[in-house]
Design brief:
By secondary structure, the protein is α+β, with helices and mostly antiparallel strands. It contains nine helices and seven strands; from the N terminus they run βαβααβαββαββαααα. The chain has one domain. The strands form two sheets. The chain has a four-stranded mixed sheet with strand order 1-7-4-2. The protein has a three-stranded antiparallel sheet with strand order 3-6-5. The longest helix has 15 residues.
Length: 262
């Protein structure tokens, strides 16, 4: 696995634009986090335990789900609501991954993993069950929730969830501690924040709270700018020609007249 430490947002941009078009990205708060799905981190993990958790989730979630789902779709919904599954969260948008790397306070370096690939992804109609896959697949589901669409969500799924994904296709982009807050401010200016990535009332509330905690100016009470009048030098332009023609022929409307018919 290649590792690169950046010193600016421009460094991050340069790495991302060199990635193949089908690449996906994952942000982690601690740079030492491994690429292991949440269910694979359970100390008592077994495939029977994993299947049992999903089966129980289906029973308890049934009143809140309005349509039939297959196992791929159930895994996405379960992952979305915090259940440990064999799916590992990624995004096709590198800025989204960068946000999740720097969002929460942490006194250490963070990282964004870039999975460089030109291979296509399976979807939620794949012929095999998610518990029958052999190897590592990129999984791109339909956007069955607004949050999936907002976060440009993608996943990886693998046959053995306790295994760390690595290899030459992965690049770790290390984000130094002293750069984390600066990058979060830059991302806000690009429209990447809690309010845009979590399109619900909770997301809006968290974004507003962060905004007021980190900016001294009240965005609801903007202060007017004081502009000094400037003298404009006349130049030979089409507008001046129109003005001249209007003065010499007052009965003919100029090019900027509201009476001009189309």
């Amino acid at each position: 696995m290649k590792q690169i430490t950046i010193a600016s947002f421009h460094d991050f941009h340069d790495i991302v634009v060199d990635c193949p078009p089908m690449s996906i990205f994952r942000g982690v708060r601690k740079k030492n986090y491994l690429l292991i799905p949440k269910v694979g981190r359970l100390q008592n993990y077994s495939r029977e335990l994993e299947k049992g958790m999903l089966a129980r989730f289906k029973v308890h979630a049934a009143p809140y789900v309005e349509r039939d789902l297959n196992d791929w779709q159930w895994l996405v919904v379960a992952q979305h609501h915090g259940l440990s599954t064999r799916l590992l969260d990624w995004s096709t948008n590198a800025l989204v991954a960068l946000f999740f790397a720097v969002e929460k306070a942490f006194e250490g370096d963070s990282a964004v993993y870039a999975f460089k690939t030109n291979k296509g992804a399976i979807n939620d109609t794949f012929r095999l069950s998610p518990f029958e896959v052999d190897g590592i697949y990129r999984f791109h589901p339909r956007n069955i929730t607004p949050r999936l669409a907002a976060q440009s969500a993608s996943f990886t799924v693998q046959d053995w969830p306790q295994m760390d994904i690595g290899g030459k296709a992965i690049t770790k982009i290390v984000i130094p501690l002293n750069l984390r807050q600066q990058l979060k401010n830059v991302l806000y200016r690009y429209g990447v924040h809690r309010g845009s990535l979590f399109p619900d009332l909770d997301g809006q509330a968290q974004m507003i709270e962060w905004l007021y905690e980190n900016y001294t100016a009240d965005p609801e009470k903007p202060e007017p700018y004081t502009l000094k009048p400037q003298k404009h030098l006349q130049t030979d332009t089409g507008d001046q020609d129109n003005q001249r023609n209007s003065e010499e022929n007052p009965g003919i409307p100029d090019g900027n007249s509201e009476d001009k018919k189309l």
